[in-house]
Amino acid sequence: MCLLTADRKEDLIGRNIVEMIDQGHQAIFKERVAQAALGAQMTINQVRLIRPDGSDVIVEVTLGLRFWDTAVAVEIVMRNE
Question: How far apart are the first and last CA of the chain?
Fold first, then answer.
């Protein structure tokens, strides 16, 4: 929650992660998520993330395929560069 400057987890739950990414990176992010869903693991550098308060932060995004209960999911990890 600190990375996104959210006061409460409820401010983030249900939000579309793509909408929090700078428009210049949204297409590549969607493409990489689709690749990760097929089993690829990758990192995207220098992604500008727009926080709920309107400020931004540059992050590194790592994507990978994960199994959750009986379903497949894409794990997205973001960290400050």
Answer: 16
